[in-house]
Amino acid sequence: MTFHPSALESIPEHEAINLVSDKMMVLNKQTRFSFWECSHLDCIAYPGSKRAMFCRAIQRPLWALIFIIGILTVAWQCFLYLFPYNVELVNFPSERSSSFSDWSTYGVIPIPCHSHNDYWRHVPLRSALRAGCISVEVDVWPWGNEILVGHSPSTVLRGTLQSLYLDPLLKMLDTHNEPPSHNWPKVMSQEMVGLFSNDPKQSLTLLVDCKTEGDRTWPLLVEQLNPFREKGYLTHFNGSDVVYGPITVVVSGDAPLHLLLENTTYRDVFYDAPLDNLTFPAEITADDNKSMDSTYNPSNSYYASADFRTAIGSLSLSRLSDVQLAILRSQVRAAHKLGLKVRYWGTPTWPVGLRNYVWHVLVHEGVDVINTDDLRGATRQDWKPHHRWQWWV
């Protein structure tokens, strides 16, 4: 029923007061409880007016849109939290030209992450490089004269180590190290650069995990590395020192250590030493050359790795205990005294909060690369060993 103020003139005063009071109560109730209605008094008093109809036409869709956007935002954040591996890193092209614009890693900042089982990614190798990972892992199987890639014989990919990794790496390095012009003087030869434009001296570690028959895989790998070797792209041991190059090749799994150690004057493939089984003389210091007397040293090994659950143990109360932290520190200290870089695999992956906590503790304690399946999550971390993380341990 429509109410108009002129109607009050034809009724007694006490009835007019009651009528106005009742009408105000109705208006208060409508204003308080009507979420979709306009709060203007005129729109409430005259719901059939043009203004009221206009407000309803605008306000209801607006609130509905805000509600839908809110639901979608919450759903997307829940998806990222629960299933981070299903979202690949997206790089947007930069409009600013640069001398490094033709690099596939232009604008990428290298981070100490290790792309675990990299061949499972939508774009093997390149996804890890675009995320800034300085280490990638590939499982291999010998097959005739080729080295196949896959976690098991039943899941090998169509590509090979050559086609999926070695050929793309060689092409990128050739492009990055191409002289500015054909007339470039030989005396002004360029210094060797790697894969990352933001840090051209950063070496990429290619961890080759030999799943079986390491003795058969070894000669195939050594032969396929010849183009890198001839162009000086490989980190190598020259008989006295380790000379770092754009690519550092490390073998793991069933890799034949005895074949790697045969050549005592030159090596460009290094071993992944067992982190939880290192032995070294107690008197060795970080800068002591006696570390070369150990079975695993920089002349033959690059990484020292271990399964986190085996070496450290499972986490109770979602944190590292004092005993576990002491074990972690002793293993990191032992590897660093020998000149090796530390890596743990099998770290917690879910829930994300626990995963990030373990990552940050490892970085704070000096672990050199973080094993990860979630490239997107890795790029969101601050990998500097800040002291503010100490309260977590």
UniProtKB/TrEMBL annotation:
<feature type="transmembrane region" description="Helical">
    <location>
        <begin position="62"/>
        <end position="83"/>
    </location>
</feature>
<dbReference type="InterPro" id="IPR017946">
    <property type="entry name" value="PLC-like_Pdiesterase_TIM-brl"/>
</dbReference>
<keyword id="KW-0812">Transmembrane</keyword>
<protein>
    <recommendedName>
        <fullName>Altered inheritance of mitochondria protein 6</fullName>
    </recommendedName>
</protein>
<dbReference type="InterPro" id="IPR039559">
    <property type="entry name" value="AIM6_PI-PLC-like_dom"/>
</dbReference>
<dbReference type="InterPro" id="IPR051236">
    <property type="entry name" value="HAT_RTT109-like"/>
</dbReference>
<dbReference type="GO" id="GO:0008081">
    <property type="term" value="F:phosphoric diester hydrolase activity"/>
</dbReference>
<keyword id="KW-1133">Transmembrane helix</keyword>
<keyword id="KW-0472">Membrane</keyword>
<comment type="similarity">
    <text>Belongs to the AIM6 family.</text>
</comment>
<dbReference type="GO" id="GO:0006629">
    <property type="term" value="P:lipid metabolic process"/>
</dbReference>
